[in-house]
Known about the structure:
The complex is a heterodimer of chains A (122) and B (134).
Chain A: H1 2-25, H2 30-51, H3 54-57, H4 61-83, H5 90-121
Helix pairs in contact in A: 1-2, 2-4, 4-5
Chain B: H1 10-33, H2 38-61, H3 72-94, H4 101-133
Amino acid sequence: xxxxxxxxxxxxxxxxxxxxxxxxxxxxxxxxxxxxxxxxxxxxxxxxxxxxxxxxxxxxxxxxxxxxxxxxxxxxxxxxxxxxxxxxxxxxxxxxxxxxxxxxxxxxxxxxxxxxxxxxxx
Amino acid sequence: xxxxxxxxxxxxxxxxxxxxxxxxxxxxxxxxxxxxxxxxxxxxxxxxxxxxxxxxxxxxxxxxxxxxxxxxxxxxxxxxxxxxxxxxxxxxxxxxxxxxxxxxxxxxxxxxxxxxxxxxxxxxxxxxxxxxxx
Lengths: 122, 134
């Protein structure tokens, strides 16, 4: 458990630092940078929440697909909230959210199927 | 509470998704009533499921079954982190002090101290009652 806490903390701090730097270089004001940093920390905690469902979800193909979609949606939500410029407009942001979620979930599912096939071959 | 061994029933899965959707809708409606633009409504609605998952994630490190056996410092740590997650959600959704970094940091710290402290006190009270009932 201690190792998991340390790795979660390290991951959280790195992601928060990267987000804050990206936000700063992107020309955000100090309040926005503060919000983006907080969001990064919240995202890291949310990943742990989603991983709690993994043992249950990965037992069936439908559960696996649902889990991958939820994982992709969580990551894309973070991108929309903390990285994507708000000048894009709601239509483009929603389109970005849907397309990126579908693409990431699709790639994840394809990779999982490929790994499973290779595992059965050996 | 999430069990790692027992599979979730279809009803529980549906309830979890429906709950997240309902909470996101309520957040979106709140932001809409506040008169914010479409981008803010969309972004703050996305934050709602993130908040729910973050609270679940926190429970991953502080399992509910060990609530009564936890040390005082760890209990304080859990309640402070729980208040921090709620504080982030409220700070970004309600936006009480727009464009004032000092005010926002102060609000966030005060929120964590007050709400975390109150939850910690409630937790201690429950624990002492639990001890008396044994």
